[in-house]
Amino acid sequence: MFGGLLSNGTQKFLSTPVQSVKDLNPLVSYLKISYSTTDPVLNDRIQFPSFYRTIPNEEAEIDGIVQILKHFGWKWVGLIISDDDTGYRAQERISTALSTYGGCLAFTTVFRDIYFSYHHAEEIAQPIRKTSAHVIVVYISTQYGFVFTTIFAIYRFPKKIWITSSFFPRVMVFRHQKIKTTFNGSLTLLIQEGEIPGFEQFFRRFSPNRYKDDLTINTWAWLFGCNFPRRVRVRLETGEMAEDCTGNETLSDADLSVYGNHNYRVTYRVYTAVYALAHALHNLYSAQPPTNQHLNKLKSLTAKIKPWQLNKYIRNLTFTTSTGDTVFFNDNGEPPFAFDIVKWFFLPNDRVMRQKIPTSQCNEPCSPGYRKSKIEGKPLCCYDCIKCADGEMSNTTDAANCVRCSAFQKSNTERTECLLKPVNFLSYTDTMGASFTSIALIFFITACTVFGIFVKYWGTPIVKANNQHLSCILLISLMLCFLCTLLFIGRPIQICCLLRQVTFGIVFTISVSSVLAKTLTVIIAFNATKPGSKLKKYVGTKVPIVLVIICSLGSIVISAVWMASHPPFFEADTFSETDTVILMCNEGSVSLFFCVIGYIGTLALLSFIAAFLAKDFPDRFNEAKNITFSMLVFCSVWVTFVPAYLSSKGSRMVAVEIFGILSSSAGLLGCIFVPKCYIIFLRSELNTRTF
Predict the structure, then answer these.
(1) Is the pTM for the entire model greater than 0.85?
(2) Cα gap 174→182, rounded to integer Å
(3) Cα separations (Å) of 110 from 17, 130, 137, 144, 379?
(4) Where on the phi/psi map is residue 685: left (φ > 0), alpha (ψ -120 to 50), or beta?
(5) Do residues 233 and 227 lie in contact, with contact meaning Cβ atoms separated by under 8 Å?
(6) Largest CA distance in the chain
(7) Phi-psi region of 102 (alpha: psi -120 to 50; beta: other; left: phi over 0)
(8) Which residues cross the membrane (predicted)?
(9) 333 in the Ramachandran plot: left (φ > 0), alpha (ψ -120 to 50) or beta?
(10) pLDDT over 70 (residue 529)
(11) d(CA 259, CA 499)
(12) Which residue in 341, 368, 18 sits closest to 191, CA to CA?
């Protein structure tokens, strides 16, 4: 004896197929080929070096069921298993596999007894009737088939999608109506069918007339629901006794269609196992040297060949069956395999029913724009869908987390994608930006016109009064003040950020210093007329010009310190407003910025005080009143500027500063120079020395 076939269908090893191999383990050198044992323990080549099989192990079948679940997106699945290694192995692999794509088990119920009891039946039935899962997997060992069919023949269960393991065809012989109703449309994963040449014809000629053994007679009576006198008595479902068999019945396709051709699958595995053993023996005998012709060849070879030698030839075996299938064994002693997905229909009158494949999830999947949120006390695959927060997105179904958009992006309304935030800055194309530009240019042209008028009427008394050179300096500085506002409009760049505050501070200081110098000129001139006054030596143009230069130097020093320590810089502010990116010039040092504003304000306050003191001097060309009003306008604007500037962001903050520059500059231009132009053009009789 060199090898043999094993089956888990024998009476001795029906309940523990692995034990059948272990019982033979002392004969470790003998080759063993199984056509029905699926326990993965037998893959251990250390314990079972000479074990092979022509059917895949049950882990492959379990993984096949998982692929079906994954293919249809079934995540909320019930599981029925048997109380043995097969069942618990299926539970572990299916549960683990479901978790990899966000699924989980709705329930797990266990067949704990191979015999029927109502208590046990209730334990099985209750979870099935209560579950919200639309898909239930049944993976039990064959020995639990009787109690399985008994329970499903008694209870009526809700409509579900059933996926069963390869045990199912063996229990379909129990054709109870409730079983057919429950499992109509169920899926079973079966080893792929193969063809055995001539077997179909042999099977069709099978009858008790040719084979009179008990197995044939019992099978015939069971298939056709008839009796063999004094041998087999069959009772129909109606309770009546069946008619006698004639022995002339035929196994037509219609007779076997109820059960399918599942038996051929097992038969083909037996066929493959026998041929594998035959090919291995043939290769083994062919490899032996020629023997003495006078000796019995078989006895001579049997004496020379050892049982363990056959293992080598089966391990390296590759052959092709008559139907073209290639057979070989991998390192675990298993053949190449594939599965068929069999769908069971029990329909009267050959009706065909079409049904859409349902989903089976604990809850509806989260759409893009939402994320999963675990529900306390529920399995992981049961969750709420929470909409992504503003600034976050998800573009996949059942996203575990939302993805935060970058600082320069925002999420759309559906929270399915990130969009670039619009930028916020005071543009020339904006209504506000265009308005400020127009106003600045109008005031600039007005200042240029006034300057031209002063040049033309340079020698007139109204122009000469209160130092005409200071008036020209003041007009030029006002022109620059109007123009410097253009540095605040448009997309900020680094050079503009550096220039605009410095330019504004210095030019505005020159303007206010000129006004202060004009006021002091009036005071000095009036007091110099008093007898013995020492102020006569300060009358003239030099002292006011020096004063303007000294005051301007103060602003230049502050600006230089500012630029050297904390210069302004370009910044994209993504935090102040959630929906926009504010392009702005960061002042670098707010304290130094307000030092410039405070310095200009101090000069303006001094000018106001001086002008107020000189407003009643007896001189027809005295500008003190005009300067007083202009300083009131100037101070009012910049006092309100500070809170407005601090409470603004983005383009509004820039607009506040531009408004402050334009309005205060326009106040100086209007209050000081409009009265002079009025006299020049409309009251020219007043513009004479005699008057």
Answers:
(1) no
(2) 13
(3) 21, 16, 12, 11, 19
(4) alpha
(5) yes
(6) 167
(7) left
(8) 436-458, 470-490, 502-525, 545-565, 590-614, 626-646, 658-681
(9) left
(10) no
(11) 93
(12) 341
Would you state the structure tokens that stand for residue 473, as one six-digit string? 């300096």
Could you give the count of Cα atoms lying within 13 Å of 504 in the half-sphere of its Cβ? 24
For residue 232 the two structure tokens come to 């087999």
Strands ordered across the beta sheet of 51-53: 3-6, 31-34, 51-53
CB 148 within 8 A of CB 87: no
For the record, the structure tokens of 637 come out as 């604007």
Angle between helices 494-528 and 651-668 (to 10 degrees): 20
The residues, ordered by sequence, that sit 6+ positions from 446 with a Cβ below 8 Å of its Cβ are 669
Instruction: Give dist(CA 190, CA 265) in Å, integer.
Output: 8
Nearest by Cα to 397 from 370, 362, 375 = 370
Dig out the tokens for 344 from the structure: 């069971």
Nearest to residue 320, comparing CAs of 312, 328, 331, 309? 328
Distances (CA, A) of 417 to 367, 397, 574: 13, 13, 18
| Cα gap 544→454, rounded to integer Å | 19
Average pLDDT over residues 338-342: 83
Q: Record the tokens describing residue 596, joined without a space.
A: 């410039």
- Domains of the chain and CATH, by start: 3-55+263-336 (3.40.50.2300), 57-192+338-362 (3.40.50.2300), 207-250 (no CATH), 370-420 (no CATH), 431-615 (1.20.1070.10)
What three-state secondary structure class fits 183?
Answer: coil
Residue burial 272-299, b: 16+ Cβ < 10 Å; e: rest = bbebbbebbbebbeeeeeeeeeeeeeee
| Residue 130: count of CB within 10 angstroms of its CB | 10
At 4, the amino acid letter reads: G
Q: In the 3-class helix/strand/coil scheme, how is 89-104 assigned residue by residue? A: HHHHHHHHHHHHCCCE
